Structure formats: C-alpha cells, structure tokens
Amino acid sequence: MNSFPFLDWVILILFLVFAAATVGGALIAVNTLRIIRSVCGLAMSCIGLGGLFYFLNSPFLALMEILIYVGAVCVTIIFAVMLAEPDEPTPEKTTKPYPVFGVLAGGLVGFGIFYALVRLTVTTVWPNPAARLNDGSVKAIGEALLTTYSLPFELISLVLLVAILGALVIARGGRHKE
Question: Would you say 159 and 68 are in contact if contact means Cβ atoms under 8 Å apart?
Fold first, then answer.
C-alpha cells in the first residue's frame, strides 16, 4: 500500500511531463530558425530524456544525460554562437510553400512508424522491470564505468570532442572589423 495518496497518478503525470518535454524540445529544436532557440529546444529535450532515463530505473544515466548534453554540449554550442560573427541583415525573405506531395508522404511515413511502434509496444509481452545493477554508490558507479560500461563512457567523450570541434568551426572567423 502506498503511503502517498494518488502516487500512481503523480507518477503518470511526471512521466507525461518528461515525455512532453522530450518531444516538445525536439520540435522546438527542429522547427525554429534561430540557433539559440534550437539549442534551448535541444536542452529541453535532453532534460526530458534524462527524466525518462530515471523512470527506466537508471539514475546515473539520467544524470549523465543532463550533465553531458545539457551542461557541456549545449553550453559549447552557445559559446560558439556568441563567438561567431553576427548575421548580416537579410533582405526580403521569399518563402516557397512546401510541396503537398512531400508533406503528405512525410506525414504518412511518420504515421506509419508511429503506428508500428505503438503496436509493437502494446502487443509485446514485457518482462518484469529491470532491477538495479548496483546500489548507486560512487564506488559501484566507478567500477561499472571502468569495467562494464567503458565503451559508452568513451563514446560520450567522443561526442564532447565533436561538439568542441563544431564550436571551433562555427567560431573560426571570430569577431573582426573590416
């Protein structure tokens, strides 16, 4: 018996908030024209993803998602934008409408993938929830990082290296006066 009233509803609402933050942040990151808003959308999406990792009984992975992607990658991109040249004012923008066939085809493919994933999720017999691999202490996490999870740990450093190189490429011109 739960000691907190409506605990199941609170958990469901938190899960929906994290899922909405993940999807909403991804939509903001993709659909906006300004790079700062895109980075904020990416950060929002990564925070939501960290919350979903926590729901998957992986608090360490949730923390690493927030620390590395929000705290390092997004901040690096923002620094690169701050160091880059300001944009020239653009003349009158002429926007072309999207081709109807492309929009319909993209929507149909997206709906098909969504339907397949929902059907797979609903019809699959899932095993019991995953148990914790360790007690969550610093010693157990350190041992797991240097033995079992050494490859993902190194891949994270590769992602950070690519983010730093991307920031350098964006900021290569620097701010100079003509």
Answer: yes
